[in-house]
Amino acid sequence: MKITISEEIRQRCPEFVGTAVVANVRNSAFNAELWEEIEAFISDYRQRYTVDSIKEMPSIEATRTAYRRCGKDPSRYRPSGEALVRRTLKGNELYRVSTLVDLINLASIAYGYSIGGFDADKIEGEALCLGIGREGEPYEGIGRGVLNIEGMPVYRDAIGGIGTPTSDHERTKLSLETTSLLTIVNGYDGNRENVDACATYIQELLRRYCYSDGGSLLRF
């Protein structure tokens, strides 16, 4: 899989760095040990941070800034990393979706990045390009129906958009049948060290909970 960054993103978000994890996996509906880890992490997280802390998190603020630069209101179309952190710090329970989705959500909360998770076998072609959503561009967000992605960063494969910081596309979503994972950590803050650390954390979680060797990293 080749991942490139369009000139329109480079101009508006020159700091952007990304790291992808490509791995063979075995998904499951629920993993009790993972959820023990998630609940322990969240308990500690809530003791260290409050909702007011969100504005001090560089990874979250940088994604909000990227939305503004591309032409989207981040308060109306909230990036998923911020949405997960807000949900956690407000005391709400996280959704239980599947082991793959749950561990990606854990990594997103831990580092504040919006992370795309895709079934690699459903991606059309052998390349993705990060661009900006266009007026009227068709896009069906997972569990959201038709999503207006105009002015939103979007990864496109050979036939269209598959991932934005707000929501990934139904067409390439992770399922219990997923065996080939592509997950992308989006660092609009330009912090290569932190982005790589988040990707490495995902690899560790995959080894523990998804019968995986952790796969390989792709930096771009």
Characterization of the model:
The protein is of the alpha+beta class and 220 residues long. The chain has one domain: 3-Layer(bba) Sandwich (Phenylalanyl-tRNA Synthetase, Chain B, domain 3). 35% of the residues lie in helices and 21% in strands. It is built from six helices and ten strands. The strands form three sheets. It has a four-stranded mixed sheet. Strand 7 and strand 8 (161-163) form a beta hairpin. Helix 2 runs parallel beside helix 5 (99-111), helix 4 (80-89) crosses helix 5 and helix 5 (99-111) runs antiparallel to helix 6 (192-209). It starts with a strand and ends with a strand.
State the name of the first-level CATH class.
Alpha Beta
The side-by-side strand order for the widest beta sheet comes to 1-4-7-8
* N-to-C span: 12 Å
Gyration radius, in Å:
16 Å
Beta strands, count: 10
Mean pLDDT: 98
CATH architecture: 3-Layer(bba) Sandwich
- Order of SSEs: EHEHHHHEEEEEEEHE
CATH topology: Phenylalanyl-tRNA Synthetase, Chain B, domain 3
Task: Tally the helices.
Answer: 6
Low-confidence stretches: none
Largest sheet: 4 strands, mixed
Proportion of strand residues: 15-25%
Structurally, how many domains make up the residues? 1
The percent of residues in helical segments reads 25-40%
The general outline is globular
The CATH homologous superfamily name equals: Phenylalanyl-trna Synthetase, Chain B, domain 3
- Structural class designation: alpha+beta
